[in-house]
Amino acid sequence: MTELAEAAGVTVRTVRFYRERALLPPPRREGRIAWYNEHHLARLRTIGALLARGHTLGGITELLTAFEKGRDSHSAAGLLGLEPALTTPFSEEVPVRLTPEELAAHYPGEVTPENLSDSIDLGYVAVDGDELVHTSRRLLDASAALVREGIPLADVLDGARRVRTQVEAIAAVFADVLSAHLLAEDRDPEDVAASVDHLRPYAKHIVDAELSMALDRRVRSRLDAWLAEHGENGGGVGGENGGEDQDAG
């Protein structure tokens, strides 16, 4: 159950609660061992996606029941027919469970109450009993690397908040395009889900390519300006002096 909870980005307590509410089917049992599979993970992600869209647990229970009974329900088909698209996330982030000491080791001297509060507000870190759960291994490693390079964690988090605003706008562009051209009323939900799943990597490729080129332009411009200033005050002057000394000699 712990592995299932980690893969879904929820707590073990949440998994137990969903089991008690019959939102999650029982696991396959072999003796005292309970086996969960991809179906259980998909169900957890479906529940999370529907909750994010404003559905209540009671409403989700009814929708799931209708879907499983094969009832010809427009609401169930419309929402749960997109289950592959909803449960296969665009992100591929792997959450990381950490003790407070392990988190502090990633950011030596930087885990202040203010920074921890900001991390929780951003949704990067959640508290689960005596442990902390970071939402993304990649974000954890990248932010720790920035801190090791001398960038204060507070500035890293501030930058992350600014980036969040920009990527939400980018995501909205893709969502608008997909909605305008894929979510037609006469399309079969499974066909829509397949199209979204097929286009998923291309959205990432476009953003990655555009970001790489933008970084190249922006960072190169800043670096060129710094090198020009550095050359005037340091290495460049030495080179010019060296030439003058040679001429004078």
From TrEMBL:
Keyword field contains DNA-binding: yes
Disordered: region residues: 229-249
Signal peptide bounds: none
Keywords: DNA-binding
This protein's record includes keyword Transferase: no
Entry's Gene Ontology molecular function annotations: DNA binding; DNA-binding transcription factor activity
Highest rank taxon of the organism: Bacteria
Domain HTH merR-type: 1-66
Stored Pfam families: MerR_1 (PF13411)
Record protein name field: MerR family transcriptional regulator
Organism: Streptomyces chumphonensis
